[in-house]
Write a structure and sequence with these properties.
InterPro entries: 6-PGluconate_DH-like_C_sf, 6DGDH_YqeC, 6PGD_dom2, 6PGDH_C, 6PGDH_NADP-bd, NAD(P)-bd_dom_sf, Pgluconate_DH. With about 300 residues, this protein is of the alpha/beta class. It folds into two domains: about 160 residues, NAD(P)-binding Rossmann-like Domain (Rossmann fold); about 120 residues, Orthogonal Bundle (N-(1-d-carboxylethyl)-l-norvaline Dehydrogenase, domain 2). It is built from 13 helices and seven strands. A seven-stranded mixed sheet has the order 2-1-3-4-5-6-7, with helices on both faces. The longest helix has 29 residues. The chain is elongated.
Length: about 300
């Protein structure tokens, strides 16, 4: 299979590598010429055989919309666009309709795996017609983890994949918050002598073992009291969208909503629990830490 990949950042660059290792021929384009395989979006499209498949991996919102709009003018009938970014699911129908007017297919694909996806594989949640998903299946097979899980065709409607990923991220908010609050309570008392060892002991045999727990253990083994981290955690959008969808559908979502609001609270004070949330986000996704600036410099200049 040949595929074009637009956006070669932290996720996109690793995805290009994993697809190539899985036998897929990938032509990547990025505005950063140092990582790009070709000089322009037009050149990328020209180099692909028909039917052309282009995977978009750029920031949600305006950048994704602009890229898909440009591809609508460059691609033709029978071609396919896959949006693998963190787009809001309601944008998918807009993009699907835009492309369908020119006979171009559309698949929305929620991607989870962060900076570890290159090694472990990416969990993929797709929305779109069976025929369109089939066109990109070799790429999905190269990206997904080994084993029976890690890939789902969530629904035929545009948005099914991103809606599934949105709910996944909402759950992620809540699980991280629970671990973080437990860590803060253990740290707040003098009953437990070694909090990192307690968390590490939960990694086997308990009902709360998970990859997020593994990542928190890694973080607190490196920085026992998370003194190097400010208790500030960003929210990247999906948590808000999950709570909004819950309101629209009259679904009670007490825990996920509370975990979202806890992140808002972190911007008002230096929360110990939010240090743990920030540490986990950095471990799985390479998300920025809001650390104090070094002498004479700025924190997180990117």
């Amino acid at each position: 299979m040949h595929i074009g990949l637009v956006g070669l950042g932290k996720m996109g660059g690793n995805m290009r590598t994993r697809m190539r290792e899985g036998g897929v021929t990938v032509i990547g384009y990025d505005r950063n010429a140092d990582v790009s395989d070709t000089e322009s979006l037009e050149a990328l499209v020209e180099q692909l055989p028909t039917p052309k498949v282009v995977w978009v991996m750029v920031p949600a919102g305006g950048p994704t919309h602009d890229t898909i709009t440009a591809l609508a003018d460059l691609l033709g009938e029978g071609d396919l666009v896959v949006d693998g970014g963190n787009s809001r699911w309601t944008d998918d129908k807009i993009h699907a309709d835009l492309l369908a007017a020119k006979g171009i297919g559309f698949v929305d694909c929620g991607v989870s795996g962060g900076v570890w996806g290159l090694q472990n594989g990416y969990a993929l949640m797709c929305g779109g017609s069976t025929a369109d998903v089939a066109k990109a299946q070799p790429a999905f097979d190269a990206l997904r983890p080994e084993g029976e899980s890690g890939f789902v065709h969530a629904g035929q409607q545009p948005g099914a994949g991103h809606f599934s990923k949105m709910v996944h991220n909402g759950i992620e908010y809540a699980v991280m918050q629970a671990y973080a609050e437990g860590w803060e309570l253990l740290e707040a008392t003098d009953v437990v002598d070694n909090v990192p060892e307690v968390f590490a002991s939960w990694r086997e045999g308990t009902v709360i073992r998970s990859w997020l727990l593994d990542l928190l253990v890694t973080a607190i083994e490196d920085d026992t009291h998370l003194d190097k981290i400010r208790g500030y955690a960003d929210d990247s959008g999906e948590g808000r969208w999950t709570v909004e969808a819950a309101i629209d559908n009259a679904v009670p979502m007490n825990v996920i909503a509370a975990s979202l609001f806890a992140r808002f609270s972190s911007r008002q004070d230096d929360s110990p629990a939010m240090k743990a949330v920030a540490a986990m986000r950095n471990q799985f996704g390479g998300h920025a830490l809001h650390t104090p600036p070094p002498p004479g410099g700025d924190a997180n200049p990117d």
